[in-house]
Specification:
It is a single chain. It is globular and about 70 Å long. The protein is built from ten helices and 16 strands. A hairpin with a 2-residue loop joins strand 9 and strand 10. The longest helix is centred in the C-terminal third of the chain and has 26 residues. The strands form three sheets. A seven-stranded mixed β-sheet has the order 5-4-1-2-3-16-15, sandwiched between helices. Strands 7-6-14-13-8-9-10 form a seven-stranded mixed β-sheet, sandwiched between helices. A two-stranded antiparallel sheet has the order 11-12. It has 398 residues and is an alpha+beta fold. 28% of the residues lie in helices and 23% in strands. It binds adenosine-5'-triphosphate and pantothenoic acid (PAU). It comes from Salix koriyanagi. It is an enzyme of class 2 (transferase). Pfam families: Fumble. Pathway: Cofactor biosynthesis; coenzyme A biosynthesis; CoA from (R)-pantothenate: step 1/5. This is pantothenate kinase.
Amino acid sequence: MDHLREIETDGISNPREISRLAIDIGGSLIKLVYFSKDSSDHEDPLNDSVGVSNGVNGRLHFAKFETININDCLKFISANKLLLGGFQHQENPTNDRSFIKATGGGAYKFSDLFKEKLGISLEKEDEMDCLVTGANFLLKAVNHEAFTYLNGQKEFVQIDHNDLYPYLLVNIGSGVGMVKVDGDGKFERVSGTSVGGGTFWGLGKLLTKCQSFDELLELSHRGNNRVVDMLVGDIYGGMDYSKIGLSSTAIASSFGRAISNNNELDDYKPEDVSRSLLRMISNNIGQISYLNALRFGLKRIFFGGFFIRGQSYTMDTISVAVHFWSKGEAKAMFLRHEGFLGALGAFMSYERHSLDDLMINQSVQIPVDASCGTDTNYNPLERDLNETESMQCRVYQA
Ligand SMILES: Nc1ncnc2c1ncn2[C@@H]1O[C@H](COP(=O)(O)OP(=O)(O)OP(=O)(O)O)[C@@H](O)[C@H]1O
Ligand SMILES: CC(C)(CO)[C@@H](O)C(=O)NCCC(=O)O
């Protein structure tokens, strides 16, 4: 991957129109969120904000890079002049464009690199704070952000602002964080697991020798986990174990079939291994999430993080796990901007730029970019936010 697409492809030709870049540097991926003012909108409160109250139309842009390719990200920022409309320090307005908001572990790890290569400081924001701010913002401000996915059926969820809390936020990044959210800025990280997206990508790479995450996902589409997993029926001579509610086709032991003969890794198809791995990890996360929801009596679980990548099989497995273990009591929901919660939270943390200041233009509720905006067949759920994307919005300054 990943996307040294020129800014022009997003319809932004004037770099002075860019403003406010925020960054989330995770263990696997770097996420960028930045704002660009519509060229038809002549006011420029983001660079000269004092006294402006009626807002500016523009777009929020999203981009991501692999953390191991951080230099590509630095080049992208530099080539597209994303720092030009940077943030002006309140206390010291002459100290313009000297910092950007940053979250994730990489905000610490790569702080010197940003200073050295771009001459910019990273103003660090707590990862969990940003995650929750980003999730709350998306759930409240963007229609068609959350959806359920069960038996191949996608359904958007109408969020009632007065009945949003409490909920469990499960962020599946390299590792998995589980956060009980009780309100804006009111949350507790209640659990986590190291068996997450990094595990799928890392183990998958070792086992299948594939070269990219997308290749690993592609393999999983064509695989059959039945070849690798041991099913209840394998143990029960083809029968269900109905007394405890297990059908013969339920997985009794992920990868369990690999013990039953003298096969080597090479005897298995990479696609079968990839599918089994994806199923194992998704199922495990679904189960742990349900257990944590149960601990706190939570009925709604929102899943984010780039492990999901809008993949049907991943979402279906997670949903089935939550549905199965909760006996239909708890609901798994997914977010369109799944991997950008932290970066959005960092974006919202700029001074005088609170949740209430950023309004999504209700006439364009579903994020579109230049390439799909004219496509009447465009279905936001058919593609993920892997490419640089944007959504129409209006920014208000107090
Ligand atoms: N193009 C890609 N390259 C690598 N991993 C990808 C890619 N697309 C999706 N992923 C998956 O997304 C995961 C990273 O998700 P995300 O960006 O939400 O987390 P992170 O911020 O990197 O991790 P953490 O929060 O644990 O530091 C990877 O571990 C991998 O499973
Ligand atoms: C360490 C973080 C918070 C970094 O984003 C994440 O990868 C994570 O939540 N890992 C799981 C760690 C655990 O709770 O076991």
